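Re: that backbone. Tokens:
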């Protein structure tokens, strides 16, 4: 990836597995905010989840690469997977600033549920100074993001945004449940990701 990036989107998550909803959201935010690229960052050791409850990092990374390979504006970073300890977003953003320069503007893309949890994030005030947040919401459902913006006051109004994206009721939790129950996940995840899940026998015997 060229380093002269002016606007860089960061799509973070466990991606366990990555699905169409992630891709649709990332593309919508890229277009709306004129992002040069969107960097997908699979979480290494999410501080809010036990390692025992998530799929090994290599599988999640491979699926993310497969899901994004057809979009020339999408890239995947192993930055959190290569770092030991909890995967705090602020550490990731600081490392990306070193890589791409302080002149690059960063946009962290996430869903409404994650935006709602922002007040509990590690060093969130400093993080808001380093990057913007875009909360993807269903059309007509901006009130939750608005309440978080109001909670952070001035910096919230300047650094947290919301964007209505196509309504896709898809979650990784539901996909894992479907697989355990033998139901189809076709068209919910990219075709190559579906093949990978079946080949590697993922999610067959996982607890909820």
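Recovered sequence:
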């Amino acid at each position: 990836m060229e380093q002269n990036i002016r606007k860089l989107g960061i799509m973070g998550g466990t991606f366990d597995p990555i699905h169409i909803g992630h891709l649709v959201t990332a593309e919508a935010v890229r277009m709306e905010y004129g992002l040069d690229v969107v960097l997908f960052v699979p979480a290494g050791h999410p501080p809010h989840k036990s390692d025992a409850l998530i799929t090994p990092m290599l599988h999640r990374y491979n699926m993310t690469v497969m899901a994004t390979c057809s979009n020339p504006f999408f890239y995947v970073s192993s930055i959190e997977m290569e770092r030991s300890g909890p995967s705090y977003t602020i550490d990731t953003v600081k490392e990306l600033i070193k890589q791409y320069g302080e002149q690059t503007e960063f946009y962290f893309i996430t869903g409404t549920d994650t935006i709602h949890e922002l007040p509990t994030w590690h060093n969130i005030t400093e993080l808001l100074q380093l990057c913007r947040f875009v909360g993807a919401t269903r059309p007509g459902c901006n009130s939750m993001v608005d309440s978080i913006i109001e909670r952070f006051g001035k910096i919230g109004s300047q650094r947290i945004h919301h964007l209505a994206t196509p309504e896709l009721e898809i979650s990784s939790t539901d996909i894992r449940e479907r697989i355990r129950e033998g139901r189809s996940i076709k068209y919910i995840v990219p075709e190559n990701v579906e093949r990978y899940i079946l080949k590697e026998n993922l999610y067959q015997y996982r607890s909820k």
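The first helix runs from residue 20 to 33. The chain has a mean pLDDT of 90.
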